[in-house]
């Protein structure tokens, strides 16, 4: 399973496709070459499937330390990256399946559904 990732603190167009722990560690090594001075840790972002509203999701509770001297820690982070990608895939399949649930409507381009009927203010409704 190939996972597309990128890191905070480096140019956004620098993305990596990784499929193993070793490829992830190599991506971290490459990413640290492009970090700004003074960066202590980076955040790992996983690309979201196309049917989700955001483009990238942050791997929760994970800070990517510098490559040098932290190789064991980086190898231990790989399962978190995989788990985040799996959760995004699960969420994507739920969103895909929910399109067919009766009663869900698509919003018009303006983002506000057309109002039908009279809207009664809350104060009037409790009298």
Explain what this protein looks like in three dimensions.
The chain is α+β, with helices and mostly antiparallel strands. It has one domain (3-102). The chain contains 3 helices and 4 strands. It has helices at 21-32, 71-98, 122-125, and strands spanning 3-7, 16-18, 44-47, 56-58. A hairpin with an 8-residue loop joins strand 1 (3-7) and strand 2. The longest helix has 28 residues, at 71-98. The model is unreliable at 122-127 (pLDDT under 50).
Content-based structural category? alpha+beta
Q: Helix and strand string, N-terminal first? A: EEHEEHH
Gyration radius, rounded: 21 Å
Most strands sheet = 4 strands, antiparallel
Oligomer: single chain
Can you give the helix content as a percent range?
A: 25-40%
Order of strands, widest sheet: 2-1-3-4
What's this, in brief?
By secondary structure, the protein is α+β, with helices and mostly antiparallel strands. Helix content is 35%, strand content 12%.
What descriptive keywords fit this protein?
127 residues; alpha+beta; 4-stranded antiparallel β-sheet; 3 helices; 12% strand; disordered C terminus
Please render the helix and strand layout as text.
Layout: E1 3-7, E2 16-18, H1 21-32, E3 44-47, E4 56-58, H2 71-98, H3 122-125
Antiparallel strand pairs: 1-2, 1-3, 3-4
Helix pairs in contact: 1-2
